[in-house]
Structure prediction request, 733 residues.
Amino acid sequence: MPRFSIIVPSHGVTGRLSQALDSVLGQSFGDLELIPVCDAPDAPAAEVAAGYAERDSRVTPVHSPPSAGLSGARNAGIRAATGTYLLFLDGDDLLLPGALAALDARLSETAGVDVLYAEHERAPWWEGEPTNPAAPLLAGAPKGAFAPADRPALTGVQLPAWSAVYRRAFLTERELAFPEGHFTDLGWGGLVTVAAERIAVLRRTVVRHRLRRQGSRLNLPGPHQHTLLDQVERVLTRAAERDLPAERTGPLFDQLFAVVLKTASRPERLLSGRRAFFRRAARLYRRHRPAGHRVPGGSLGVQHRLLAAGAYTAFRALRGANRAAGDAAGRLPRPHMLRTRLRYARDLRRPLDPNLAVYCAYWGRGYACNPAAIHAKARELAPHIRSVFLVEAGQEHAVPQDVEYAVIGSRRYWEVLARATYLFNNANFAEGVVKRPGSVHVQTQHGTPLKTMGVDQSTYPVVAAQSGSFAKLLGRVDRWDFNLSSNRHSTQMWERAFPGSYEHLEYGYPRNDVYYTATARDVARIRRELGIPEGRTAVLYAPTHRDHHTGFEPGLDLEAFCAAAGEDVVVLLRAHYFYDRGGVRGSDRIIDVTAHRSSEDVCLAADALVTDYSSIMFDYANLDRPIVVYADDWDVYRETRGVYFDLMAEPPGLVARTPEELAAVFRDGSYAGPEARALRTAFRERFCQFDDGRAAERVVRRVLLGEPPEAVPAVIPLAERIPAPAAATLVRS
Prediction:
């Protein structure tokens, strides 16, 4: 029997789950079992948990459906637990170093306690100093174990479930479980307080609770606020059944109704049924008020008296009907010219056009990437939708002649942004664009993240200095309604990098559809257009941008590579999209395709890919063609840019560290050999999960046609997909 069972619900926090699990498994005290609770065996969190279970026998995942909520997940963990003591940890929180050793020592000193309360810190999700709200609650507690009657003001009502350790036998004997519904921590804490006979305190922080950017769900408005009274009634009824003395029920009563009054005094939480909430609370107050109860002083005491009297009108007048509104000025549009600004403000007052969609790719660089693929499919499946593509001035030629466009910054640009119901972008719209109620913003992304993104860049000074305001970035994230993902890895990393309330669409990347729909004739045509000589092996060289470089640097002597790799090799050079051209003069063996509009065309034309750390490798892997990673500065890149996984341990093909090694794998053909294929197969299984040729259709049906998720075409299994054929024979003699 392990000393501790740590139960970790994971719903909605997959992106940070690994950090929580690592904080447990990295403890110096190792006598434990770790129980991640996942939605279902095929849920994203279940994949993470399964990986840990394979590596560590102490990890035992269990499942609880999302419909069971947080209480159901924790109760499932309790049923599976075998440890002497139970701890609960939210899936996005951390168990601090040395926590289990400190808890074990304290439990040994206070042998047999039912509950050991401990301190925790609340860490702002982004910046600011952490606080320790439990410290004043636990201050002055007896040094050893004590009965709850010795300190009745110390109850579990004011502490979250993960700020305590519970003796499992005590929970079993008293048949304690987390109550259903919202505010389950409050109900649990109250029930434990009523049942406990011996408790103790540890004056040390053991958990770092990382506040979510969206705030607590319990603070959001909605009918769930009424369930608070269910929990209060449950606890007070249990206290009455146990016939606890007034000395103990008095503090419990005050703490419970402090929460009730806080909710009742905030009309924004109770959008409907405020009077019914107040009246029910008043009935509970009168029914369970302890004998000899003393009303608190000050304004709180006035609220107690009004609640006891059921005086809702007076209570409403006390709290004030007019609360401060949000700062609307911060949300005003900011076009530069006064006349344009006034026109935009006017257009924002006009109704949304239900049949208008706006698209933008790479900050207006042209008709490209996922927005272009969705646009094309929308013209086929939703012809009633008028589509306008946004381009920067001077890039009008980058839009096909039959595609309607608007130049960024123009009067028409602001007009369509104000009126569009649907907005698609693979980056972000301008700072001044207003997210209107009823509009639908779809963030399509433009790659799978190997390097850190969003707020995860904050700890890398070189990148953070170039990223601008992270607060403004997150203001743009708040406009997103949907976020596209091509694999579970991306889903988890987007959740971390761009915290928001959007919905993930695990539909694949629409731009990658062509890798399964293109034909041999298409491949041949593209190769002719790019000028690739017949019978040559076209190697696409696509290095990524380096934040510690000031401009494009090829990183490889391409002429020397061609000379060493073999006579039939030609190189297609494609620099990062930050650069208009690769900066390398073309030759009969080097074709600069940086300015070519479509990276998908370039990939289709290539027989193999050489890249360093560019996300193009994830897209190219769909073609099931050889990939070689040229990692001459991996350690520097990893330290300056930050990465989400070790590419050297999980590459999509062979890895070369020097120009000589790179040329050798092409010269001897090993770049396409069995070892390379095995690595690529594993890579594709992980990162080509949802790309199957129908991603654009899924997006159009779900977003533009409003079809329910279950009606969207299912993803075709990887083994059944047939990628576009390559032009050259991949296995060389």
